[in-house]
Amino acid sequence: MREPSPAAVFAALVATAVLATLQLLVPSPVQARWCSGPASWSSFSPDQRLVLTYYYYWYTPGLVDRGGLVLNPPDGVLPDRRSMDWHARQLADMAEAGVDVALPVYWGTVYPWSSKGLDALVNAREARLAAGQRVPPLGLFLDTNNFGRLVAQRPGQSVADLGSPAGKAALYDQVRRFFREVPACHWAKIGGRPLVVVWQAQPDGVSLTYDETVFAALYDWFEQDFGVRPFIVREASWDVVGFETPRPVQTDEVYMWGAALGGPFAIGGTVSVGPGYDDRLLPDREGLFRDRQGGANYARGLQWAIQSGKRWLFLETWNELFEGTAIAETAEYGRLYIELTRTYADRFKALDVPPPAKAPAPCSKKVRVSC
Length: 371
Description:
about 15% strand
């Protein structure tokens, strides 16, 4: 065997040193950078009744000023993903509304804002905890729409085939990045396991293929990297989309998206409710609409959620302003939906079941008026 040349030895030493330096620069996935407040403020038992909501943090003042919003932020509150104060206010309002878990809508590594916005959110939650205020911990809501861009960025790598090594690695990498960026003390945990909620199996702009083992590698790799098995909640479409013959996909829980327009929906141990929907100001949309009826639709949906007996209540959404599904404070409705949410969240958690209620009729794709 030939001895390596001095140049080759030197190059190997340099590469090793660079790798070691980069590893030191990456925050540990398990050790938190900041930790204030009791650990119990981020942990929930598997059978605990919870209220969860989707938190959109993609806003900047420029995006808001461009118009096209169905709902508008209240006066003096300019949404800005870079602002710790804005995030802190949203977290405090969630707590006031009785929300237990915030689910930041994460677009992964393909959009720089998705990672940068998390820093301000984490700082905001830490500041609230340091002040002795209990606010919701953070679970991952992985928006699979990011796969459209991932596929374009990685041509020829079979990223859209989640049964392939490249596809499984791409899916896991999006999850891993979130939990590397968010310190462990801010993770929402179910029975000690970090919460991962995955959006639909057929995102915009790409056709994903997979089999019933699609999440198996994610479970295994996460446990290897972080020392704990994640608690994964899949959207119901993973059971029927992407298969030639539907087969059961194995995760810890399942939920259904679309409640703001057509819900409420109940599946598995979850129920999903939304206040209304309006995409008529968005270009290239169908012009779908579901009237809020001054909060009456939302109240009926929440009442039905209580009657359903499910243990988890998903609220769709906290602050999606373009599609008009927000329950956060807005210029149009003030804090009405925060107050409604708190009333029914308390009943939901206390098993205060009102008289039986019929589920509101689902809206058809042709709906343009109240339903």
